[in-house]
Amino acid sequence: MMNGFIKLAVDDTFLFSCHPGIECFNRCCADLNQFLTPYDILRLKNGLKLSSGEFLKRYTTHHIGPASGLPVVTLKMLEHKDLSCPFVSKTGCTVYVDRPGSCRIYPLARIVQRKPNQRTCEEFHIVIREPHCLGFNESKKWTVREWKQSQAVSQYDEMNDLLMDIISSKNRSGRSRLTHSENELFYLACYDLDGFRDLVLEKRLSKTQAHPVKKEVIETLEVDDVALLRFGMEWIKGRLFGKA
Ligand code: SF4
Ligand code: SF4
């Protein structure tokens, strides 16, 4: 048990099914404190064919996370529509192919805990059993592994681990708060990817690094958002927390 939640290993099972015919359909897509990870934003802004700047302006708010001390981005719920998610419709999620990782993996949540004073992590999953969700009354049985495969979450896990890595470096560095300009740089590298690309392409990065970014790397970053996000997260980790 963990704070009232049952820990599940990858081959543990649970009963669940979610489909348009279920009485609670869409009930879970409102009044959410929905954090968006850097990779969630990449997928959503590309799926909606928006720049990261436009996506962030239209659909999100951001603040400094009290636990991490780093900028976090949340999806703005629609105040004039019972706090529903901006992407929910009568027929379901309008961004389904690019829906955020936490929506994909629901009713599970993935927990990654770094062991104290070690670089290794423990990974497990918990079931989020909410009273309004009738999916647990269905008879379809899943292992955690099967559910995650069916929801295509592996790249989300991989990219979210890079964010975890930044948070761990920050914790190891002993820094509690960043300066305003460091927070802005973090926001740019992790969330405002198209803005960060402009920074890379203008080669302004080279002025802040001992080693300028190589031409062939720049060419990849120009066209490949996933490579750019990986680069951005590695870069900001080194820039803010060194080798911590
Ligand atoms: S993004 Fe889609 S699945 Fe997630 S809360 Fe919004 S409508 Fe629901
Ligand atoms: S409340 Fe549960 S079963 Fe109902 S739509 Fe949401 S996830 Fe599916």
Describe the structure.
With 244 residues, this protein is of the alpha+beta class. It has 2 domains: 7-163, no CATH class; 179-241, no CATH class. Helix content is 41%, strand content 16%. It has 10 helices and 10 strands. It has helices spanning 38-47, 52-59, 101-105, 144-150, 154-173, 180-190, 193-201, 205-208, 215-223, 225-241; strands at residues 7-8, 13-15, 35-36, 60-64, 71-75, 88-89, 92-93, 108-114, 121-127, 141-143. The strands form 4 sheets. The protein has a 3-stranded antiparallel beta sheet. The longest helix is centred in the C-terminal third of the chain and has 20 residues, at 154-173. The chain is globular and about 55 Å long. The structure holds iron/sulfur cluster (2 copies). Residues 29, 32, 85, 87-88, 93, 95, 99-100, 103 line the site of one iron/sulfur cluster (SF4).
Content of β-strand? 15-25%
Radius of gyration: 19 Å
Spatial strand arrangement across the major sheet = 1-9-8
Averaged pLDDT: 91
In total, the number of strands is: 10
- SSE order, as H and E? EEEHHEEEEHEEEHHHHHHH
How much helix, percentage-wise, in residues? 40-55%
The bound ligands are: iron/sulfur cluster
